[in-house]
Design a protein that fits this description.
Elements lengths: L9 H25 L5 H25 L5 H9 L1 H33 L6 H17 L2 H26 L20 H14 L16 H37 L3 H8 L10 H33 L6 H23 L1 H29 L6
Length: 369
């Protein structure tokens, strides 16, 4: 029988984080990295993974100092006003990410399974499902993805193995791009994008009230980062070896295109790309649910200063789900607005997520009891 204490295990943390980290990154990063030249993207993934590991160590160190939650920890060094302000910034970052991921998933479904005119309805269903999952709580979401993990991972591994025979290793070279010297601007740009793809690990600091043994949780998070990074690395090598950097850079969702190229022995399954959209539906849905859940929890904590109960809790979920829908629909209608939001995310959102725990490491001194 399952417990019902809003606590999750280290195994559940690992599987939730794998879904959060791998879904959007596997869809978008390969084509973005391919623009830098043949092999530079490979090094960007590895460098981004290293920086993500350092960042996770920093977050884990901060978590080990907490006696209550992240806000209590921030208040010891930054003061109450700045701690609340940072929480509001975290919440806004979460909701905008939720909206972006919901828009991405709705467009993916309309492009492969539905008609483009059905975008508003598809987006509404996605947001309502995310609202239902987020309002059910951390434990319920963790149970679902614990059960789905191998159901989704095993078919993906099999399909990628079927693609290996089509890989042309010569497409990986030159490993430093087309020129004799490394294009450092492309390398650092790709590294920054890869590191940003691992940014959902930031939510580790908000997990403290939901785990019993944070040392095990920290190891689980590290395992999730390593597993997701390795999967992204292998996927990029396969895509680069099949498409080449030129063709890969032009693909919108290269991994979906790759799934459509896979030939199952016996040819008994048609439109495999449409079938595999279901797999990415769950990975993106996990990110949407995670960001909506933390956005509501963080905003509520910042505005009330305590864990409110009853209708107030549900009201925050409904309000922020409505905001996520509005922002996602705006992104769909105005691609320029989405581009501007992405630039703001890379130039301000990512530095904010890094600088706050870095400075807190030195000025916040709360010790866990």
């Amino acid at each position: 029988m399952f417990s019902s204490n809003d606590k999750i295990s280290s195994r559940q943390i690992k599987r939730l984080l794998v879904f959060d980290l791998f879904g959007a990154a596997s869809l978008l990063l390969p084509s973005q990295l391919a623009k830098s030249g043949n092999g530079i993207g490979i090094w960007s993934i590895l460098a981004g993974l290293v920086f993500a590991g350092v960042y996770l160590w920093l977050l884990n160190t901060c978590c080990c100092r907490m006696s209550s939650d992240y806000m209590g920890y921030l208040e010891t060094g930054w003061g109450s006003f700045l701690a609340r302000f940072f929480y509001i910034c975290y919440a806004l970052l979460s909701i905008v990410t939720c909206a972006w991921a919901a828009k991405l998933l709705a467009e993916l479904m309309c492009g492969t399974l539905l008609d483009s005119t059905q975008f508003p309805s598809a987006l509404l269903v996605i947001v309502l499902l995310a609202l239902y999952g987020a309002s059910a709580g951390m434990e319920a979401r963790a149970r679902v993805y614990e059960l789905l993990f191998w159901v989704l991972v095993i078919p993906l591994v099999i399909l990628l193995l079927l693609c290996v025979r089509q890989v042309q290793v010569i497409q990986w070279f030159p490993m430093l791009g087309e020129s004799d010297a490394i294009s450092w601007s492309w390398f650092w740009s790709g590294t920054w994008q890869c590191f940003a793809a691992f940014l959902p690990v930031t939510f580790v600091v908000f997990l403290v009230p939901h785990v019993q043994d944070f040392k095990k949780a920290g190891r689980a998070a590290a395992g999730a980062v390593a597993l997701s990074g390795a999967a992204l690395f292998v996927l990029y090598l396969i895509l680069l070896g099949i498409f080449g950097s030129g063709a890969l850079a032009k693909e919108q969702y290269p991994v979906i295109t790759l799934m459509g190229m896979v030939k199952i022995p016996g040819d008994f399954l048609k439109r495999l790309d449409a079938v595999m959209v279901g797999g990415w539906f769950f990975t993106l849905y996990a990110l949407i649910g995670t960001t909506l859940f933390y956005g509501a929890v963080i905003m509520r904590r910042a505005m009330t200063g305590r864990e409110a109960a009853g209708f107030s809790k549900q009201a925050w979920f409904f309000a922020l789900a409505a905001a996520a829908y509005a922002i996602a629909f705006w992104f769909h209608l105005s691609p320029n607005a989405e581009v501007s939001a992405m630039k703001l995310f890379y130039l301000a959102g990512v530095p904010f997520a890094v600088v706050v725990p870095v400075v807190s490491f030195f000025i916040c001194r709360e010790e866990a009891g």
